[in-house]
């Protein structure tokens, strides 16, 4: 795979300050496919200085021109969609059809949505004798995860640029190649030098340096709740704005009278997508006791179909972590009805699609984010019991409700403590706000709510 041996700062590729590199490994066969610089705190400082220098000019650029650069970026990404998909497949292990349909297509759509929003957003309004003005928050430090390596980049960088902010991006070390491709696309789209900068590197080095840097006005992070706490503490000490999209343990609630077969099939597909490496995955299926056994049989059969459809996990550490959770589920008394901890292939970081029945709400696999192709089926007695179980974790990122009548599902969804709920299989909407309650994070991404994260408010009284 193509890999730059430098970092992208102030509109050009340049050598990193140190000599260390990060090898990129294909998780399907454990072969090294490239290497990128392991950026240092000095590299982060250089990038932040470039972003600060570019900030006044970009913030003063008319929204229509910022929109034009984002539209050009969308077009460049669209022209390179096949290369994007192939790159993500190589470094993440995602099957190529999924990479094409999700990892490439969704970021292109999101980039396009912000091109339109930058042109139409009302940055100034009259309120009584005041003019209320929305202006960019400043320099953004964006730290992105490996599970949706381009989507998460675009979901942060596009609204930041639309708002008039400048950006320093530190992508995940497991999937840096598509971030380099994104930097090439930014350059080709004509975004001015210094407005976007890329420093590859390790989280405890480059990521921490970016979060701590006094020249960064907002840190936008997607990843684990544990790291989110650290970033929140760093930002809090500096009174610095943060946007945190963290973990999830989302509930798929199937109410009596719902189309059980459809709810199960869609629910299993949701969990198995991206090999279960999705923070918003509906990893807890809640079924009424009267149809529990039927649901278990349907779920086991549906999961078996994914044995040859899903890819590996991103690395060996993640594979061992997920297998450990499966072993813990068995040890705590849950019943395996599909899959298990045994690796299905000798090479690569594979885990079988796994389903547990007889899971109780207090079990570890029902409380902690596993981040793999593992689904737990829980039994509930009545609607209040289902609500108690659904809300009974520290997370609140996403979820689903199925019912015979839409109004019934909506009424239940309104009482769920979570940021986004799909009703009877509702489709993904790239304009709808995405983010969590409780320990699933702070702030929202996508659409106008995502743009607002990168703005601050000033009022002028007359």
Describe, in plain words, how this protein is organized in 3D.
- The chain is globular.
- The longest helix is centred in the first third of the chain and has 25 residues.
- It contains 15 helices and 22 strands.
- Helix 2 packs antiparallel against helix 4 and helix 4 packs parallel to helix 5.
- With 462 residues, it is an alpha/beta fold.
- The strands form six sheets. Strands 14-15-16-13-12-18-19 form a seven-stranded mixed sheet, with helices on both faces. A six-stranded mixed sheet has the order 9-8-7-10-11-21, with helices on both faces. The protein has a three-stranded antiparallel sheet with strand order 5-6-22, with no helix packed on it.
- The mean pLDDT is 97.
Q: Which word captures the global form? A: globular
β-strand amount = 15-25%
On the 0-100 scale, what is the average pLDDT?
97
Q: What is the CA-based Rg, rounded?
A: 22 Å
**How would you classify the quaternary structure?**
single chain
Strand order of the largest sheet: 14-15-16-13-12-18-19
* Helix residue percentage: 40-55%
The helix/strand class is: alpha/beta
Low-confidence stretches: none
Q: Say how many strands there are.
A: 22
How is the biggest beta sheet arranged? 7 strands, mixed
Alpha-carbon distance between the two ends: 59 Å
Q: Helix count, per DSSP?
A: 15
